[in-house]
Amino acid sequence: MSQERLDERTETTCPRCAVGCRLRYDEATGRATGVEGARVNREGRLCPKGIAAFEGLDEDRLTTPLVRRDGDLESVSWEEALDRVASGIERVRERHGPDALAFFGAPRCTNEENYLLQKIARSLGTNNADNRARSCHDATAEAMEARLGSGGTTNSLDDLAEADVFLVAGANPAERQPIAFDRCVRPAVNDGAALLHLDPRANRTTRLATQHLAPHPGRDALAVALLVRAILDAGLEDRAFVAERTTGFDAFARSMERFDVAADAERAGLDPAAVREAAETFGEADRAAVVTGTGIEDDEGTTPNALLDLLLVTGNLGKRGVGMNPFRGLVNEQGASDMGARPDCLPGEAPVSDADARARVAAEWGVEPPAESGRSEPDLVREFGSGVRGAFVLGENPAVNRLDDATSERLFADLDFLAVQDVAPNETTAFADVVLPASAWAEKEGTVTNLDRQVQALRPAASPPGRARRDFDVLADLGARLTDIDFEYDGPPAVFDEMTRVNPLYAGMEYEGVLDGGERWPFSEGESEGQDILHRKRFRTGRQRAPLEPIDVAASGTAGDDRDSGDGDGLVLLTESRVDEDAGSPSARREAATVQINPADAATRDIVDGAQVAVESDRGTVTLRARCTDAVREGTVFAHASVADPLVGEGRTPVEVTQSRLRE
Ligand SMILES: Nc1nc2c(c(=O)[nH]1)N[C@H]1C(S)=C(S)[C@@H](COP(=O)(O)OP(=O)(O)OC[C@H]3O[C@@H](n4cnc5c(=O)[nH]c(N)nc54)[C@H](O)[C@@H]3O)O[C@H]1N2
Ligand SMILES: Nc1nc2c(c(=O)[nH]1)N[C@H]1C(S)=C(S)[C@@H](COP(=O)(O)OP(=O)(O)OC[C@H]3O[C@@H](n4cnc5c(=O)[nH]c(N)nc54)[C@H](O)[C@@H]3O)O[C@H]1N2
Ligand code: SF4
Ligand SMILES: [Mo]
Hints:
By secondary structure, the chain is α/β, with parallel strands linked by helices. It folds into 4 domains: 3-51, ADC-like domains (N-terminal domain of TfIIb); 66-133 and 332-506, Rossmann fold, CATH 3.40.50; 138-326, Dimethylsulfoxide Reductase, domain 2 (3-Layer(aba) Sandwich); 571-659, Barwin-like endoglucanases (Beta Barrel). 33% of the residues lie in helices and 17% in strands. The protein contains 24 helices and 28 strands. The strands form 7 sheets. Strands 5-4-18-17-16-6-7 form a 7-stranded mixed beta sheet. Strands 23-27-24-26-25-28 form a 6-stranded mixed β-barrel. A 5-stranded parallel beta sheet has the order 10-9-8-12-13, with helices on both faces. Helix 8 (220-233) packs across helix 12 (272-284). The structure holds ligand MGD (2 copies), iron/sulfur cluster (SF4) and molybdenum atom. Molybdenum atom binds next to loops. GO terms for molecular function: 4 iron, 4 sulfur cluster binding; metal ion binding; molybdopterin cofactor binding; NADH dehydrogenase activity. Residues 545-571 are annotated as: Disordered.
């Protein structure tokens, strides 16, 4: 970004991940510098991603509205572009009904922008509003909503630092959420807390681990079931908590008799003694906390549910230093869902089927949202050209997905109408009928919600380039064109106020308070009561007790399938969850060209370290250099998402790895 456009004095929130560090532009270095005294990065620290936050802001920007004519995108006036969006959406709605529309976005946009997006969708008569960052942690959030009444992290980074044990499952927070990790996990472990890492692959987080449990991919639920069984065997359950705060213990305990640590550990890929050791560490701790990531998301919620059982049995909910803490990914992943950019809920985790919640919204909007849940983003994309005829995409790139290229291209090409509002051209704009040039984070005003439910402000430190406009203003204009209801707002604070009236989690919050450092939801609980730590006396379901539920290992997708779980001769591919942000540096690119394979698996395939190998799935083949390493457990291989994407479909990907004929 050209430096003269940036204002040094403006404090804003880092856009690079969900930790929510506060920063400002530093003219002397041209980089970001942390804000001391901030809620998360108190000492003013930033990670390397955050320090580079202002870099690239000027690159490749869309600076003019574009409309497709005779196959080409042409520059037009804002009036014409917005008219075209309104008429495109209106036509689909008239011909095919509101549920033939899809609204996607936007975990990188503000709460106010997400609120407007879903308000447009719902006032047009559809709940087909979703954001794709939900795929990163939603199985976990769904399990938490069902059993605890909220998908939010149960605890705050502050009190998590008091844990005696951390169980990190399918995540790499040391690298992915570094400032959060350094704020609570690292100091606690340096002070003697235990860190159990449940992951088929060693990563940077494993370096600090006191014990690494590397299960077969897809066998996490079994691994957790065995931990619970060993805890029950050793009598380490928290009887008082079980009696006061849970239901169904007897049936649960009986159901656990199906599991046998000695007999089943190997099936999970683990050593029985290691399971017992980890169970003892977890069960004996006063405070044990779970941190989860994308690695346990592939199995319909079985692993997150098993982890909730583990926490409930050991009494690790509703106090400091404990709980179920999904460390979210994108800057406003939490907020997008909080604002109702999801098909099943209105703002504030309120199911669309809840008549009171619909009435609350109707009182504010003058229109009642539909009572039937909409469809998820992946489902909607699969219906492009059939059930879905028109789509509006705000700050997402759904054309990059896990469908094979030909299918994906056909689906996007089959839409009657596609509008994309983005800061830069991407794979999705290539299919768009209208492209609206948007503002980037450093150019906007509004609020975002971080991974521990802290609501903080974005402040504009620059203006958008060329004729690009702020996302907020564009959405308000579109709402006014598309609906009969009020979309006249005197800026983001006015939308924030309206949102707090329909969103029970944010009720009572004031924009001033957000500007003044930040506020946390559920706001009305009060700071000393239930804001930092959820479920203290009651769960968010409103009940004092949460159910213990038998762990259905068979339901965990791949558990019965030996090939998929890396038990048999086949291998299962592991990838990182993200493609772009890190692939840029030379070291990341070198890493990207390798496939990590366990030395034992390499030996049976005559593969030597450094050899060129073909990695083949049922979707395609990529050629990579083998790196033989114990960092991946037997039965699995690992490749960076940027090279592995052509191999990956839905769920886990079995692959075969063979010596490539082309030897170096
Ligand atoms: N530097 C950087 N940081 C980022 C991002 C970025 O692009 N760059 N992206 C952000 C985003 S959007 C997200 S969603 C988060 C992601 O945050 P994480 O989920 O922590 O990220 P990953 O590195 O993908 O870690 C997933 C881990 O799950 C493991 N895994 C895979 N399969 C299984 C399994 O079956 N069982 C278990 N137990 N583990 C398994 C993998 O080996 C890997 O170690 O990171 C955020 N932070
Ligand atoms: N195949 C495959 N699929 C994946 C992943 C993968 O690695 N491979 N990763 C998964 C994960 S973890 C995630 S979080 C999702 C992420 O999926 P997406 O959110 O679709 O991520 P990006 O591809 O980075 O696209 C983000 C787009 O938003 C635009 N943008 C950024 N800021 C703004 C803004 O303020 N306003 C507007 N209007 N636009 C903005 C960017 O220019 C970019 O085009 O994808 C998931 N799906
Ligand atoms: S940890 Fe996340 S929010 Fe904090 S500086 Fe790094 S990228 Fe930004
Ligand atoms: Mo993500």
